[in-house]
Amino acid sequence: MFRFDVLTLFPAIFDGFLSESILKSAIALEKLHVQLHDMRGWANDKHSRMDDRPFGGGPGMVLKVDCVVPCVDAVRAMDANSGKLIMLSPQGRKFDQKLAEQFASEERLILLCGRYEGFDERVVELLEPEEVSIGDYVLNGGEVAAMVLMESVMRLLPEVLGDGDSNRFDSFSSGNRLLDCVQYTRPREFRGLIVPEILLNGNHAEITRWRMENILQRTKSRRPDLLDGVDQ
Ligand SMILES: C[S@@+](CC[C@H](N)C(=O)[O-])C[C@H]1O[C@@H](n2cnc3c(N)ncnc32)[C@H](O)[C@@H]1O
């Protein structure tokens, strides 16, 4: 079973995320295991402080190496597979579907969520995590970024989605690499807008051809960069 371990100072942030929809059922059906770890359990002073002022001065607080490294060591040792360690960081490699696919081929991911000014740099030097950013903007903490990563990875795990095919044609997926086609459902007509006739005629070969054309047109107009190197 695929396993996520999330190291955070604020585990309650994940409560709603893990108790709704596909994640909830994947966990209940034991297709996925998610273990939250409150890093504060590894604080080593009487005030349970995980952070301290930066050497050299400046604003904010820094997460302490002598708390974070023992925490990661302890969590790694909780499973025979020591897992792949990922540090959420705005300075990391930009997350995308390709990286999600790589991560989905692992069996255990350990997600290290920062707060404040981030981690003492020696955490990186000692643990050599893969640093991952969800985009060029700064969040208060790594928790939301960890959720983004978890949700995109779990969609790719065999048997997690109800319809085994529904992730194969997603935008950016390895089978596609382009944007997904448009979709419609009932009613056939709403406020004068009518579903394309071809989708209603039951001719699957024609529908597939129409969708392929739609994928190409849509990608060309919205993300022409994705078409580089693709035969059209
Ligand atoms: C306020 S940020 C620290 C930002 C840091 N001072 C900098 O400018 O690089 C605190 C934590 O939020 C998380 N974080 C913020 N933005 C992120 C992003 N774009 N992707 C992934 N994690 C992010 C990281 O875990 C980071 O340690």
CATH topology of the largest domain: Alpha/beta knot
Strand order of the largest sheet: 2-1-6-5-7
Number of helices: 7
Instruction: Give the C-level CATH assignment of the largest domain.
Output: Alpha Beta
* Helix content, binned percent: 25-40%
Beta-sheet strand percentage? 15-25%
Which hetero compounds are present in the coordinates?
Answer: S-adenosylmethionine
Domain module count: 2
Query: Which CATH architecture of the largest domain is right?
Result: 3-Layer(aba) Sandwich
Query: From the alpha-carbon coordinates, what is the Rg to the nearest angstrom?
Result: 22 Å
**Fourth CATH level, the homologous superfamily of the largest domain:** SPOUT methyltransferase, trefoil knot domain
End-to-end gap: 40 Å
Short description:
The chain has two domains: 2-154, 3-Layer(aba) Sandwich (Alpha/beta knot); 189-227. Strand 5, helix 4 and strand 6 form a beta-alpha-beta unit.
Output the keywords.
single chain, 232 residues, alpha/beta, Alpha/beta knot, 5-stranded parallel sheet, two-stranded antiparallel ribbon, 7 helices, 30% helix, binds S-adenosylmethionine
